[in-house]
Amino acid sequence: MPWKNRRRIFAPPTDHPEISGWTSYPVPVLLEDRIRVFFSPRNKDNQSCVAYVDLDRNKIDSVIDVSDHPVLGRGALGTFDDCGVQPIQALHVGNELWLYYLGWNPAINRLSRNSTGLAISNDDGQTFRRAFGGPVLDRTKTEPYFSFTPWIIRTGDLWRIWYATGTGWHMVNDKPEGSFELRDGVSDDGINWRRPNKRILTPTRDDEVMCKPNVVARNGYYHMWFSYRSYLDFRGGAGSYQIGYAFSEDGDNWKRDDASGGLDKGEGGDWDSDMTCFSSTLEVGDDLLIFFNGNGFGQTGFGIAEWEDS
Fold first, then answer.
1. Residue 12 confidence class, pLDDT cut points 50, 70, 90
2. For 49-81, how does the pLDDT look when each residue is reduced to its tens digit (9 = 90+)?
3. What DSSP letter does each residue of 130-191 carry, written as one string?
4. d(CA 113, CA 104)
5. Which residues are CB-neighbours of 266 under 8 A, at least 6 positions away?
6. CA angle, 2 as apex, 22 and 242 as ends, to 5°?
7. DSSP H or E segment with residue 260
8. Cβ atoms of residues 230 and 244 within 8 Å
9. Are residues 261 and 284 in contact, defined by beta-carbon separation less than 8 angstroms?
10. Is the entire prediction scored with pTM above 0.85?
11. Which domains does the chain have, with CATH numbers?
12. 206: CB partners within 8 A, 6+ apart
């Protein structure tokens, strides 16, 4: 495996009514003197918000600050994100910081409905305002279930996106479990997307689902890391999340190679021994870091590892 120095660097706070219990979806962004990592805690009603922890840019294991309030809370009653928001990717766009986030609310005959929203900050993520009351990535006539967890790269005037879309629901032990795969698209503004509904990776088995891609253009290739699991026995069981890997010469045609670049579960008893998931990559100078959750979808905190080019 090309990942080294793997370790946990932040565990969930436990003493705040809103910012405690979880650190799901760690999303790093590089600032002048620090790395700000947005994450999703939950309250006592299992509703999620967005908070952050600041890490020393030169000594990444050192925590500088933790936000004492949500920087993005739940949406207005009846909107797509009125029960929870979770960070997915943060991008510098001019003098603004754009945060693409997952918004969700419960559904009657399944666990929840997921969509993607956009929030904008003018103070490096200490506060956010919603760009719109509705989502910027949602189900369509050809993708009828849900669309979420995007990753975006800007190339000149073109915005490229890789994301997960739902492909159906399966009844497992009388409970609906969703399946989803990875798609791609393009945009001229990062808001309105052209989505051809083209599968970009083939599942390795019938019960496999994939989400949360993150893509880096490096050394002449596009590199993608993504979370994959079964829709069977995935809550800490044999089908739990792991982080897979694929590469491409053009960002369109991908070859999967989990053995060469993925991130397996940790050793027995460790904070990430049951699963690894929800990764985000960050380039700091010549170094490439991956931030990821472990057991319990973020209940045990988040960690990092460092990429060794090969």
1. confident
2. 999 999 999 999 999 999 989 999 999 999 999
3. ES-SS-SB---SSS-S-EEEEEEEEETTEEEEEEEEEEEEEEETTEEEEEEEEEEEEESSSS
4. 6
5. 6, 272, 273, 276, 294
6. 40
7. helix 258-261
8. no
9. no
10. yes
11. 12-136 (2.115.10.20), 143-298 (2.115.10.20)
12. none
Amino acid at 213: P
What 8-state DSSP symbol labels residue 199? -
Query: What's the chain's Rg over C-alpha atoms?
Result: 18
Give the three-state DSSP class for 234: coil
Residues 248, 223, 169, 198: what is their CA dihedral angle, to the nearest 10 degrees?
A: -30
Joined tokens for residue 43: 């309250």
What count of residues does the chain have?
310
Q: Which long-range contacts (CB under 8 A, 24 or more apart) does 62-70 make?
A: 63/9, 63/10, 64/34, 66/13, 66/19, 67/19, 67/126, 68/16, 68/19, 69/18, 69/19, 70/18, 70/19
Q: Do the Cβ atoms of 96 and 121 come closer than 8 Å?
A: yes
Tokens 């005959």: give the residue.
109
Q: Name residue 97's beta-bridge partners.
A: 92, 121
Q: Are strands 302-307 and 287-293 parallel, antiparallel or unpaired?
A: antiparallel
Amino acid at 43: N
